């Protein structure tokens, strides 16, 4: 089992849809993602997801595994951040509020291009539906967070958009 299997499983479980998880969150093909999830289930010897024509639901085993997978991924991210901070490697995080209805076709290619241009920036995409209070507000902001050891304790600065 590899960390990508855990990331893929968490994304599918949270989005309750393999196609949307593939396109909007993971930026991989749907057949590839489906194959990876089946491989994970085969390796574990248990079904994690109940599949319907348009969505997936977690089985009881899937719900238990989701909590553990999230904890493993969180711990892994924290370990990587800690080691990078010790080594003096700074990493910037870019948080993007994504509204799939409006950005579904363009966001994957934009994210790939951005990651190629800025490989040391960690991009986190968050669902940002139109009914969300932040979308209704005319006040949006952009903030970048420096995770280097020299920036410890400093707050991210935002700029209105």
Summarize the structure.
This protein has 7 helices and 6 strands; from the N terminus they run H-H-H-E-E-H-E-H-H-E-H-E-E. It has helices at 3-15, 18-26, 30-44, 60-86, 100-103, 107-117, 133-136; strands spanning 49-51, 56-58, 92-98, 121-127, 141-146, 157-160.
Task: Spell out the key features of this protein.
161 residues; alpha+beta; Arc Repressor Mutant, subunit A; 2 domains; four-stranded mixed beta sheet; two-stranded antiparallel ribbon; 6 strands; disordered C terminus
3D architecture notes:
The structure is a single chain. The protein has 161 residues and is an alpha+beta fold. It folds into two domains: 1-87, Arc Repressor Mutant, subunit A; 89-161, no CATH class. It contains seven helices and six strands, in the order H-H-H-E-E-H-E-H-H-E-H-E-E. It has helices at residues 3-15, 18-26, 30-44, 60-86, 100-103, 107-117, 133-136; strands at residues 49-51, 56-58, 92-98, 121-127, 141-146, 157-160. It has a four-stranded mixed beta sheet. Strands 1-2 form a two-stranded antiparallel ribbon. It is globular and about 45 Å long. The termini are far apart. The model is unreliable at 130-161 (pLDDT under 50).
H-E order = HHHEEHEHHEHEE
CATH superfamily of the largest domain, by name, is Winged helix-like DNA-binding domain superfamily/Winged helix DNA-binding domain
For the largest beta-sheet, the strand count, sense and barrel status come to: 4 strands, mixed
Which residue ranges are poorly predicted, with pLDDT under 50 across at least 5 consecutive positions?
Answer: 130-161
Q: Provide the domain count.
A: 2
CATH architecture annotation of the largest domain: Orthogonal Bundle
